[in-house]
């Protein structure tokens, strides 16, 4: 297990001679030129105009995602006093903690590299998963709670220019079955060439102000383009009733937009605002709706935790 924040983070070795252009493997290279090139090519608005790259070998940018970032640094204040001793992400749902359901979900769609973003008090989280067979685990520390976008930015070294999944550490999606809704995220990401993909769900009007809300373009099908996002709008100002449901896929260009994002709702750097900057810059973002009996279950309050617990327990009993 490797860490970032107060210690070294394991990076890939340089794999291209940028002067001769002779490839020894695949990007990312550690030099500034290759890392800049990788970011330029990662944005859909630009990449479609590059038919060749002079002087150096053109990087083959894979759409296959093998990495996941799981933000889990929140304080869990609405679940006090229990969260003084147990991170909310490690509360049990039946026989397993919340995060194990999420890791199992991601393993089922082919994710092999996991990076947890935690607070200094939550080092038990990466330790729990350190010896899981078949996966690689690392973590970074978010010392101050500056918002979800800032938490994702903490994982930039881990991502190393690749495309990746973001899965919020305090929510599961039920039923817990294969294929998972997250598999549709990967399918959409790979088939559309999108720069970002978001799972969305229909939210009741009285709950709209709790979520980031998206505006779909055209017909709502198995996935659809998004042209607007608003973080926690008032119900009469919401562009739709489609709320972000805690799962995302991005290419590495998202980090540039996070760095440009100003503090928003709650004085924090909101990932919703960073995605809005992507869209304004011409990048493509798509939504994948939950369908049928699929439900996002949040672990933010005792009421929603109990609902998630009973749902998980009933599935284990089947």
The whole-number mean of residue pLDDT values reads 82
**Inertia-based shape:** globular
Can you count the helices? 10
CATH topology: Spore Coat Polysaccharide Biosynthesis Protein SpsA, Chain A
Radius of gyration: 19 Å
Strand content: 15-25%
Give the strand order of the largest sheet, numbering strands 1, 2, ... along the chain.
Answer: 9-12-10-11-13
The end-to-end span amounts to: 35 Å
Unreliable spans: 4-28, 45-61
Text of the CATH class: Alpha Beta
Could you explain how this protein is built, in words?
This protein has a single domain (67-317), classed as Alpha-Beta Complex (Spore Coat Polysaccharide Biosynthesis Protein SpsA, Chain A). It is 27% helix and 22% strand. The protein contains ten helices and 14 strands. It has a five-stranded mixed beta barrel. Strands 3-4 form a two-stranded antiparallel sheet. It has a two-stranded antiparallel ribbon with strand order 8-14. Strand 10 and strand 11 (224-231) form a beta hairpin.
Topology:
Elements: E1 2-4, H1 32-42, H2 44-47, E2 67-72, E3 92-93, E4 96-97, H3 98-107, E5 113-118, H4 124-129, E6 136-141, H5 148-153, H6 156-159, E7 164-167, E8 171-174, H7 181-192, E9 196-202, E10 212-216, E11 224-231, E12 242-250, H8 254-260, H9 271-280, E13 285-289, E14 295-298, H10 302-317
Parallel strand pairs: 1-6, 2-5, 2-7, 5-6, 9-13
Antiparallel strand pairs: 3-4, 7-12, 8-14, 9-12, 10-11, 10-12, 11-13
């Amino acid at each position: 297990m490797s860490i970032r924040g107060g210690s070294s983070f394991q990076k890939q070795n340089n794999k291209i001679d940028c002067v001769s252009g002779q490839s020894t493997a695949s990007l990312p290279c550690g030099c500034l030129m290759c890392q800049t090139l990788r970011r330029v090519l990662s944005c859909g608005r630009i990449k479609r105009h590059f038919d060749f790259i002079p002087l150096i070998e053109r990087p083959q940018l894979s759409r296959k995602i093998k990495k996941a970032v799981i933000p889990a640094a929140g304080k869990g204040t609405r679940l006090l006093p229990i969260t003084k001793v147990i991170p909310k992400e490690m509360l049990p749902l039946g026989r397993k903690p919340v995060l194990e359901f999420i890791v199992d979900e991601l393993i089922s769609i082919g994710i092999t590299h996991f990076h947890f973003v935690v607070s200094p008090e939550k080092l038990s989280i990466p330790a729990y998963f350190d010896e899981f067979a078949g996966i690689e685990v690392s973590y970074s520390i978010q010392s101050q709670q500056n918002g979800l976008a800032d938490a994702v930015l903490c994982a930039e070294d881990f991502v190393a220019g690749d495309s990746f999944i973001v899965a919020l550490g305090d929510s599961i999606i039920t039923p817990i079955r294969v294929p998972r809704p997250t598999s549709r995220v990967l399918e959409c990401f790979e088939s559309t060439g999108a720069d970002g993909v978001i799972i969305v769900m229909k939210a009741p009007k009285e709950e709209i102000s709790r979520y980031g809300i998206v505006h779909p373009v055209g017909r709502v099908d198995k996935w659809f383009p998004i042209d607007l996002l608003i973080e926690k709008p008032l119900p009469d100002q919401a562009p739709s009733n489609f709320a972000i449901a805690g799962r995302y896929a991005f290419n590495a260009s998202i980090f540039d937009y996070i760095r440009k994002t100003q503090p928003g709702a709650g004085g924090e750097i909101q990932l919703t605002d960073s995605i809005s900057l992507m869209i304004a810059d011409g990048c493509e973002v798509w939504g994948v709706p939950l369908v049928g009996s699929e439900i996002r279950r949040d672990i933010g309050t005792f009421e929603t935790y109990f609902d998630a617990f009973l749902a998980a327990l009933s599935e284990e009993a089947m």
